[in-house]
Amino acid sequence: MASDVCLELVVVRHGLTQWNLDKRYQGQRDIELLMPDALADMDRLRLELEGERFDAVVSSDLTRCRQTLAHIAEGRGWPEPRLDQRLRENDFGEFEGRNWEELKDDPVYREWIDSAGELAPPGGESAQDLRDRLALALGAIFDAAVEAGHRRVLVVTHGGVIRELRREFEGVPFWEGVVGQAAGRRWTLIRQAEGITCTSSSAVPRQASVSG
């Protein structure tokens, strides 16, 4: 593995879905965007990225991410995206399709909430499971950067993925790492032999609000 590889990574969340409005755990369910309601946030992100060039584009393979990417990338001449299942949302197992109101009296759900995701939902992934596959996804992005000379990469993914990456790169507590729809973070990352470190972080769009 090459040392001192520096990469600017712009990582954004998909646009609005009906399940976002309903506050349901989507996880790895293949939910489409809610149109036209999703457009306002995605238009704001598209405007923020106007004039930017990326050496590579990587996306979760789930429909809501692919739709978001298609909207913000239209006419931009960015590279053909590479789809990576490892960038999917956390697998919430039996909690998927349900919301807090439906789950709040379930003791297993309360234990999961109290653990800040460290426990695995029934039939789902723990935070460590998510971290393990995100490490592989990031490794692939850095390996491609070394091979092809990439310096700026766009990633379209999910809220739980960004929250976990913020915990790793920014030291943000689990419950404070949420980003809004079609919003995310811009990181400068350096991969060395001992691992990946973050040297700068900012919101995308720059005035993005944080919401559930």
Description:
Helices cover 33% and strands 19% of the residues. The chain has helices at residues 18-21, 39-48, 63-73, 100-103, 107-114, 127-148, 159-170; strands spanning 5-13, 56-59, 82-83, 152-157, 184-192, 195-204. Strand 5 (184-192) and strand 6 (195-204) form a beta hairpin. The N and C termini lie far apart (37 Å). InterPro entries: His_Pase_superF_clade-1 (IPR013078), His_PPase_superfam (IPR029033), Phosphoglycerate_Mutase (IPR051695). This is Histidine phosphatase family protein.
Features:
33% helix, 6-stranded mixed β-sheet, alpha/beta, 212 residues
State the total count of DSSP E strands: 6
The gross shape turns out to be globular
Order of helices and strands: EHHEHEHHHEHEE
Q: Could you tell me the radius of gyration in angstroms?
A: 17 Å
Q: Point out poorly predicted stretches.
A: 208-212
Helix share of residues?
25-40%
**SS field, number of helical segments:** 7
Strand order of the largest sheet: 3-2-4-1-5-6
Strand content: 15-25%
| Oligomeric status | single chain
Q: First CA to last CA: what distance?
A: 37 Å
Going by helix content, strand content and strand pairing, the class is: alpha/beta
Q: Describe the main β-sheet briefly.
A: 6 strands, mixed
The average pLDDT score comes to 94
